[in-house]
Design goal:
Elements lengths: L3 E6 L15 E5 L14 E5 L2 H17 L6 E7 L3 H10 L2 E5 L2 E4 L5 H10 L2 H8 L2 E8 L3 E6 L5 H4 L8 H8 L1 H13 L8 H15 L3 H13 L8 H8 L6 H5 L4 H10 L5
Helix pairs in contact: 7-8, 7-9, 8-9
Length: about 270
């Protein structure tokens, strides 16, 4: 079977009119069968008929937009041996993430800012089910470059019934991806080499912040303290006092005037409180 190369385009972020000839072949919107109302706002699927000539221009456009800080127009470059109809159907239906038999949410798995986190949020078999007929998925991250993940494509017979399911905790974590990305921004801005497990650590701290009742605007501040000061910094009596007074003073205001020495002391003393 032939292996074809495709791209997914997010029209709300821009267009690909600036790509040179030969132009990618448009295969249509990825509209889930269960959500026809997404027509007009869904991502679009294109096939690269001449990938050797087209990929350099695609990569250049992706890199240029990422380094300018723009949201990605071309979200992914991928390969598949499946028929166009089967591929289109699978990728479109994957846009709905089932929370329960009666409740689903739009799942922007194809966005590199989402897909990069799915590596640690999902189990291997879940990710393989999500990808279905895809054999190689490539995306770009400004601070790490191009990343390719390969999959063993699911047999055609399995694709008709295969749909990724997630636990309640996984669903909650996936819904938190945008907040994780926003929390990572100040760290990435420092151009520091970030540890690969940092997003997972941030998610743990964000989960704690939510359980403490912090509003969304303060959860990121709390999470950064959790990864920069000490993971269990919230055990310290000083932090516990701040958390107990949230109804009077928001967390970010309560700690705004603290010095580096204050945080160092909290980090050192946190081991004493269990």
């Amino acid at each position: 079977m032939s292996n074809y190369t495709y791209i997914i385009v997010e029209p709300s972020n821009g267009n690909i009119d600036d790509l040179p000839y030969p132009f990618p072949y448009e295969l249509g919107e990825l509209v889930p069968a269960a959500r026809p109302a997404l027509a007009g706002v869904a991502p679009q699927l294109y096939r690269l008929e001449h990938p050797a000539n087209q990929l350099p221009a695609v990569r250049t456009k992706v890199e240029r937009e990422a380094r300018a800080g723009y949201a990605p127009t071309i979200c992914a470059v991928f390969e598949s041996e499946a028929s166009t109809r089967r591929l289109h159907e699978h990728l479109a239906n994957a846009l709905l993430l089932q929370k329960s038999p009666d409740v689903s949410a739009v799942f922007r798995y194809y966005d590199p800012r989402v897909f990069s986190h799915l590596q640690w949020m999902l189990e291997g078999d879940q990710l393989a089910t999500l990808m279905g007929p895809v054999t190689a998925w490539t995306y770009f991250q400004q601070h790490t470059g191009w990343i390719t993940q390969r999959f063993a494509a699911r047999p055609t017979g399995e694709l008709a019934v295969a749909q990724m399911t997630v636990s309640d905790d996984q669903y909650k974590t996936i819904a938190r991806i945008a907040l994780i990305e926003r929390t990572l921004e100040p760290l990435r801005a420092q151009n520091a080499e970030l540890p690969p497990d940092l997003p997972r650590a941030l998610n743990h701290q964000l989960d704690k912040a939510e359980r403490y009742g912090l509003p969304t605007e303060d959860q990121g501040v709390f999470a950064l303290h959790g990864v920069l000061v000490k993971s269990d910094f919230d055990r310290h009596p000083t932090i516990q006092a701040v958390l107990a007074g949230l109804h009077e003073t928001p967390y970010s205001y309560a700690v705004a005037g603290w010095s580096d020495d204050d945080w160092k002391r909290i980090a050192e003393e946190s081991v004493l409180h269990f």
